[in-house]
Design a protein that fits this description.
alpha/beta, 5-stranded mixed beta sheet, 11 strands
Amino acid sequence: MFWKTLFFALLGGLLSTSASAQITQTTQATPSAPSAQTTPAAALTFGVLNQQSPLLTAERWNPIFNYLQQVTGISFVLRMGQNVQATDATMGSGGFDLVFTNHNFHPKYDGLYRVIASWGDRPVFGVIAVAENSPLRQLKDLAGKTVAYPSRDAFMAYAVPKAALKKAGVQEQEVLAGNQDSALGQLSSGLVDAAAVNSRFLSQYAARKGFRYRELLTSEPYPDLAVLVHPRVPPEQVKKIQAALIGMKNDPRAAAILEQNQFSGFSPATEKDFDSVRRAYRQSEK
């Protein structure tokens, strides 16, 4: 227990220091990065859902934050909990100024933050995938088999596929992997029979790792994750941030960031765009 606690403490410090150093380097009076518990006074805290490891999350988001700072003059600090539950708890207590998630649409959190943009311009799907050479061919074949999920708090990679399995009358053996990359890692390593994931992460992981797979389930389409803002953030800052996010797709300065993240840029979005997510969450609670 001691070593596990120490590991997460060190990892949390590394994430916070790495993110803060890159985000605020143009405004820091000294070259040293702030400590894990320090947020620069002018910076906004930006929470990100635990879909990948902290280091991969920082690699993805720090260039976006640097771009946003360049365009808006506002600094951002990346924040994540040690797990999804901790990140959601911070969100639920209003601990983030902005947050990238779809867990906000769960009845427990709905209304705490306001949508200002969404990731990309294409829908995503909840998928249950198996390795290409797997003997499993349809959902019913998963009865008694091991299926890796990121966590029970995931929407696209838990609530959606779980509802499909329940409807099909299939009882699998649930394995909680911690995040989507870990779920896919267990699948590609042969440690589980299948993995439930977000379609975007599945295709990106497969391309990155050369992993060949088949889909036993592909859900109806849902909007990708949202960028949301807390009501305490001043309207003039919200307007700048929203414009900068949506403007990335047409700004040559953002081209390398978009290519690195394999997406077209952020899109305009409203609360109504996520009503299907709200309905699915409510259905999963029944």
